[in-house]
TrEMBL record:
SUPFAM superfamilies: Thioredoxin-like. Keywords: Membrane, Transmembrane, Transmembrane helix. InterPro entries: Glutaredoxin (IPR002109), Thioredoxin-like_sf (IPR036249). This is Glutaredoxin domain-containing protein. The chain crosses the membrane at residues 29-50. Residues 71-127 form the Glutaredoxin domain. The keyword Transmembrane applies. The keyword Chaperone does not apply. It comes from Streptomyces griseofuscus.
Length: 145
């Protein structure tokens, strides 16, 4: 199982290394900007930007009760980040499963995608959709859907 904080940690470390040159050359403004840019990238790729992940079995039970979609995702996935950001506050209404933390979630994604761990995979009414349009996912949350 991969660690969700590996990529954000590496981004921060890379930012610190990249900023050493400007700091040594006496240009702290550029150095601070480099560190800030890498910190933003790290935050966007961290688990903090996503709603709390649940296990695949818990997400399935919750979805069965309330009819809300399940989103299988992983940290560092730009498509998952795009979906999360474009959903805005509505993202909290979905059930999010981090496939790097939940082997059953990873197995569900592989089963839905012919053996590939392609994310985001969104399950709506038992049917998988790979990398769906965020507007479509938002529509699935509306009461009329």
């Amino acid at each position: 199982m991969k660690r969700p904080w590996t990529l954000p940690t590496l981004l921060v470390l890379c930012g610190l290394v990249a900023a050493t040159g400007p700091f040594r050359e006496g240009d702290p403004g550029i150095g601070a900007a480099v560190v800030a840019a890498f910190a933003v990238l790290a935050a966007l790729n961290s688990p903090l930007i996503y709603p709390r992940s649940v296990s695949a079995s818990e997400a399935a039970q919750r979805s069965e009760r309330d009819g809300r979609p399940i989103v299988y995702w992983r940290p560092g996935c730009t498509y998952c980040l795009r979906l999360r950001l474009r959903l805005g506050r509505g993202a909290r209404r979905l059930h999010w499963v981090d496939i790097w933390r939940d082997p059953d979630g990873a197995a569900a994604v592989r089963a839905a995608n012919g053996g590939d761990e392609t994310v985001p995979t969104v399950i709506v009414s038992g049917r998988p959709y790979v990398n769906p349009d965020p507007a479509w996912v938002r529509d699935q949350l509306s009461p009329s859907a």
